[in-house]
Amino acid sequence: MFDCIIRCYERFRLLSYRRLFHLLRERDGSLSATEAFAVDVIYLLRGPTVREFADCIGISQPNATYKVNSLIQKGYIEKIPSALDRREAHLHVTEKFMRYCQEGEGALAGAAHILKERFSPEEVHTFTRMMETLTEALDEEAEGKAPADASDNN
Question: Considering the entire predicted model, what is its pTM?
Answer without folding.
Answer: 0.78
